[in-house]
Amino acid sequence: MTCTQSNLTSGQMTVMTPTNIQSASLIGTRRLMVSDNPETLNSSSFNVTRGTLWHDNVNTSSTSVLHRVFGWHLNKTGGTVKIGLTVENLSSTNTIELQSVKREKRSTNDTSQYISYVGQCLAKGCLGGTLDTITPVHNRFGRGVGLVEAYDLPTDYLVGFLFEFTVARYSGSGNLNYHIRTVASKNTSDDLTIITSSPVPKYETHPRGSWSQADIAGTTQTYSIGQTSSFSISNNSTDILLNDSSSYDSSNAITNKGHYGATYRVTIPVNNTSGVTKTVRIRVNPRGGNYGGAAKIPTGTYGIPELNTTNPNVAHIMDYTANPGTTNAEFTVMHAGASATPLAVYITTI
Questions:
Q1: Which single residue of 215, 245, 268, 330 has CA 20 to 30 Å from 21?
Q2: Which pLDDT score is estimated for 1?
Q3: What pLDDT is attached to residue 213?
Q4: Would the pTM of this model clear 0.85, i.e. be above it?
Q5: Can you list the pairs that 298-301 forms with residues at least 24 positions away whose Cβ atoms lie under 8 Å?
Q6: What separation in angstroms does the CA of 259 have from each of 1, 17, 26, 169, 346?
Q7: Cα dihedral sign for 107, 110, 113, 115?
Q8: CA 60 to each of CA 90, 141, 179, 215, 345: distance values in angstroms, whole numbers, following the listed order
Q9: What is the pLDDT of residue 309?
Q10: Residue 14, C-beta contacts closer than 8 angstroms, at least 6 positions apart
């Protein structure tokens, strides 16, 4: 079980309208692949027997590459669909190995559980480092397609999954050259490794794409002791980083405005001119609708319980001890699938 972390406390209070975060950038070396389009598989969006939902491609002289794959799909085809993750080795000169494969997968047909049961669990497991370790169906292979894992998804069920793994050159020479795909078939007896087609056309506005970095670091404007401030992240303005234009296969990608599948480290510069230690209280509140996720703070990883714009509308992240001078309060969040963004970071002195 990957998401046993407890939730932060929540409540209701009057909050101010936030200011967009000052700056943010992508960090780290782990690639991110987001397969959330077509989110709903139906006769319009998935009008084939079998096909690729989304993909990524790597061709590098590096001997290993870190990956995160986030998937979010709802089966409305009227029958069971088989969904899986595959890796195709395109090199004829080396063998690749899938190493340290971890994942969380959850499915439900209860729409009220999309955030808390499915999305929040993926965020807790990823941010808390408690994803389940699995053995892929094929973990070492030469030229050809290997299957990581596959699921049968009944009609009217949603599946959310998140994988982290390393693709490494096990033997041979030459570049790592491989293709990753999320694939689906209406025939549950299908061997999913036969699916090597281009992705089905994008449908509606849900995100999909593949980017060279999976994590975000953002810095708010300086908070001064005694003030009340609020800063908005994943705001579709000052921190749009996972763009369709920067994705692999940019013409078929859709911008990931809500940063699904990514972690977001928030740094708050705190200016304390009082000459004595002060306590800064940090809360979060949703600005776009229902929200849930996970937060990593100095004491560990916790769930951000489902919040809305009325009650409960805030979750308590932490109380930060601010010594005299300028110091930095930091925490990291991951938005649950099905959550609405932006998310505001609300700061007061107590």
A1: 245
A2: 61
A3: 98
A4: yes
A5: 300/5, 300/128, 301/5, 301/124, 301/127, 301/128, 301/129, 301/130
A6: 25, 21, 11, 30, 20
A7: positive
A8: 12, 18, 12, 21, 39
A9: 85
A10: none
The whole-number average pLDDT for the span 250-274 is 98
Which tokens in the block code for residue 80? 């069971």
Share the mean pLDDT of the chain.
97
In this prediction, residue 33 carries a pLDDT of 99
Q: How far apart are CA 167 and CA 101, in angstroms?
A: 9
Of 331, 312, 328, 322, nearest to 349 by C-alpha is 322
Contact 178/96 with Cβ under 8 angstroms? yes
Spatial distance between the Cα atoms of 215 and 126, rounded to a whole number of angstroms: 12
What percent of the chain is predicted at pLDDT more than 90? 98
For 179-224, how does the pLDDT look when each residue is reduced to its tens digit (9 = 90+)? 999 999 999 999 999 999 999 999 999 999 999 999 999 999 999 9
The pLDDT of residue 32 is: 99
Specify the amino acid at residue 89: N
What whole-number distance in Å separates Cα of residue 70 and Cα of residue 72? Answer: 7
Residue range 97-102: mean pLDDT, rounded: 98
Q: Three-state secondary structure along the chain?
A: CCCCCCECCEECCCCCCCEECCEEEEECCCEEEEECCCCEECCCCCCCCEEEEEEEEEEECCCEEEEEEEEEEEECCCCCEEEEEEEEECCCCEEEEEEEEEEEEEEECCHHHHHHHHHHHHHHHHHHCCCEECCCCCCEECCEEEEEEEEEECCCCEEEEEEEEEEEEEEECCCEEEEEEEEEECCCCCCHHHCCCCECCCCCCCCEEEECCCEEEEECCCEECCCCEEEEECCCCCCCCCCCCCCCCHHHCECCCCCCCCEEEEEEEEEECCCCCEEEEEEEEECCCCEEEEEEECCEEEEEEEECCCCCCEEEEEEEEECCEEEEEEEEEEECCCCCCCEEEEEEEC
Cβ neighbours of residue 121 closer than 8 Å, sequence gap 6 or more: 2, 3, 104, 106, 160
Average pLDDT over residues 242-251: 98
User: What integer pLDDT is reported at residue 91 of this predicted model?
Assistant: 98
